[in-house]
Amino acid sequence: IRPAGHPEGYSKQEITKELAEDVVGEAGGHNASSPELALQPLYIAVPVIYSVICAVGLTGNTAVLYVLLRAPKMKTVTNLFILNLAIADELFTLVLPINIADYLLLQWPFGELMCKLIISIDQYNTFSSLYFLTVMSIDRYLVVLATVESRKMAFRTYRAAKAVSLAVWFLVTLIVLPFTIFAQLYEEEGRLQCVLVFPQPESFWWKVSRIYTLILGFAIPVSTICILYTIMLCRLRSMQLDSHAKALDRAKKRVTLMVLVILAVCLFCWTPYHLSTVVALTTDIPQTPVIIGVSYFITSLSYANSCLNPFLYAFLDDNFRKSFRKLVECRASP
């Protein structure tokens, strides 16, 4: 979403959508330029790829929600945080068809209330994933150190995890609130667009919004996670472990590995997007076909994160696979 009247403010699919208007409007005529013709395959591919992400994401996250809510053995602290991750991903994939329709229609036909809702959900997706991964990393840190020191964690209960999850959603809601307030309909060249309408000077407020997202949505949670795992590894290496601690409990090792892999995939999907923010803030890059292609790839990569997590659970968690198989067999049996 971009601020009204500010071309440098594009983010996500909006930059490709704006250039799509030129391609759709001119590429069919005799005066179509070679860059516009070069971009045609890209704009044909955009709704197709977004549709695939939507279909895979809805299927995978629905399966995750079904297993975590229905299987009694899956009601653990870590799985509760994974459940919240899946809810965030499911919400985003549910509204992705509206973004696809917006792209194809080249305007926003759904009204201002829906505009605010879609922008809010999009921002929830940006912030909630890393915040819940931060909470999961804190949980892993405490569990591993408690195991090493042969301590019990009486406060680590399912009820406490629910309270923490609600606190995370409340925090993310506060962070997202400014985007909801600034989201408005703006008429541009006779078409209504769902954009962020900032006060004057727009350029300044656009930069503030990008820095705000970069710091709160990436720098702080990623730095926290890296510090936690660094301290945890240093403590593990420096301590003389007894036979019980050396085991570290095989199940806990698998859970820690799963959290690390989910984190790595999340960083792989979101780091290019946030790096593009740094580039947008510091460099004036011409919108060539190559740059537009890279922008499109970065956007698709950030969207793809919402459909990758379910496959990570399936590959890395034996209990998840067993519970899913058992639930499917129960429903299939007469």
TrEMBL record:
Domain G-protein coupled receptors family 1 profile: 60-313
Intracellular or extracellular location(s): Cell membrane
InterPro entries registered for this protein in UniProt: GPCR_Rhodpsn, GPCR_Rhodpsn_7TM, Neuropept_B/W_rcpt
Statement: the UniProt record of this protein carries the keyword Repeat: no
Topology of the protein relative to the lipid bilayer: Multi-pass membrane protein
GO MF term (any one): neuropeptide receptor activity
Parts of the chain that traverse the membrane: 42-69, 81-106, 126-148, 160-183, 211-234, 255-273, 293-316
Protein name from the UniProt record: Neuropeptides B and W receptor 1
Species per Swiss-Prot/TrEMBL record: Sarcophilus harrisii (Tasmanian devil)
